[in-house]
Amino acid sequence: MKRRSLLAGAGALAAAPLIDVPAAQAADPASKRKVMTGAEVLAKDGWRALAGQKVGVISNPTGILPDYQHIVDTMHASGKVNIVAVFGPEHGFRGSAQAGGSEGDHVDPRTGIMVYDAYGANADKLAGLYAKSGVETVVFDIQDVGARFYTYIWTMFEAMLAAVRTGAKFVVLDRPNPVGGYARGPMLKPGYTSGVGKKEIVQQHGMTVGELARMFNAEYLPLEPNGGRLKELQVIEVSNWKRDQLYDDTGLTWVMPSPNMPTPDTALVYPGLCLFEATNMSEGRGTTRPFELIGAPYVDYRWAEALQTKHIPGVAFREAYFTPTISKNANVLCGGVQVQITDPHSVEAITAATHMIVEARKLYPEFTWREETPPGRWIDLLTGSDRFRTMLLADATAEEIVAAWKPDTDAWTARRAKYLLYKGAHR
């Protein structure tokens, strides 16, 4: 109720005119950039692909246009799109919830459109919501960050399966992969599926959500109970993006996809540094540099010194001290490192995280997995099998652990090739 009253206080904004997209672009020097998101491409076409349909939109605060207006607000104000429902993923449609949270079902105070909670919703629940609200076309527009365990792609998967079951059309408004098109890391193995990894893909998949949707539709949806291929899948492609471009290369505005993803640099390290969620170290939640600041009360200067000798491409390690305000070690002074990005195009976040975990285990007897049953289950789910954990406990080197997943990455790179939409960086 607190969140709804907070947003309701902005209800007067509902009557305010939205900024005209072409006019805003003409006045904004950033409009000269070449990269355009799928949402911008569709808006420039007057939303014609959605005309005459009852539309359900799955989005969050990242679903913006160059004038910083959300696509739902702009579609609604245009009168050209009949939005019958909005579906909010983890953190919510307007982004007011923390990790592992959502905004619940409610009426959006700005547009008056019903918003349904899609976080953790399976295909059966979503299919029921589609039927209840009369959805004929589902639109997905969320900025992903390129990691298997970032939950938005699995919200998309369940939403696609629900569309198969109801006969709805599915439209993806594509956005760049902010960490580029290179695939890296281990493959998810059978027996290790969860809400942070529902299908066999590698840890840093190197695909856009539109490309993943094509793969899901061809390979995974037909294998599901009451599954099959979509009646129609349309991907509105990003214009002028190449796979070797990182987010900072695009000229696009970064909007936090989640509360602990404040910058494109955060996204660069997240596919690896998120592994610290499985440990008793803070991964920097509750600081201004989540996933870049890593540490614990027992860590001292030796960790940074050891890591600096590894000469890991694209990053350096600065001795750092910080006090998280939430999550693990909240309100306790932690020693550790800040992962400094020295060359964004050379960053291999999963390799860096592997070295960090190996060295932490060598240096600190207190280093362990977070409290859970069975111990180490979360690191298995994040890495996709028990191989990372068992090799670590057997005192394998970081180089040996990294080498072990190379066949996974190579096989994935070959397998995904037919679904790619953008040129460059195919390895």
Describe the structure.
Strands 3-4-2-1-5-6-9 form a seven-stranded mixed sheet, with helices on both faces. It is globular. It has two domains: 2-249, Uncharacterised protein PF07075, DUF1343 (Rossmann fold, 3-Layer(aba) Sandwich); 264-385, Aspartate Aminotransferase, domain 1 (Alpha-Beta Complex), CATH 3.90.1150.140. Helix 6 (152-166) links the parallel strand 5 (137-141) and strand 6. It is α/β, with parallel strands linked by helices. The chain has 14 helices and twelve strands. Helix 5 packs across helix 6 (152-166), helix 6 (152-166) packs across helix 7 and helix 8 packs across helix 10. Mean pLDDT is 92; it is low at 1-32. The longest helix is centred in the middle third of the chain and has 15 residues, at 152-166. The chain has helices at 2-8, 21-27, 38-44, 71-78, 123-133, 152-166, 209-220, 264-273, 301-308, 349-363, 377-383, 387-393, 398-404, 406-416; strands at 54-59, 82-88, 106-107, 114-117, 137-141, 169-173, 184-187, 202-204, 233-236, 293-296, 315-322, 334-341.
Structural topology:
Elements: H1 2-8, H2 21-27, H3 38-44, E1 54-59, H4 71-78, E2 82-88, E3 106-107, E4 114-117, H5 123-133, E5 137-141, H6 152-166, E6 169-173, E7 184-187, E8 202-204, H7 209-220, E9 233-236, H8 264-273, E10 293-296, H9 301-308, E11 315-322, E12 334-341, H10 349-363, H11 377-383, H12 387-393, H13 398-404, H14 406-416
Parallel strand pairs: 1-2, 1-5, 2-4, 5-6, 6-9
Antiparallel strand pairs: 3-4, 7-8, 10-12, 11-12
Helix pairs in contact: 5-6, 6-7, 8-10, 9-10, 10-13
GO molecular function, one term: peptidoglycan beta-N-acetylmuramidase activity
Pfam families: NamZ_C, NamZ_N
Signal peptide: 1-26
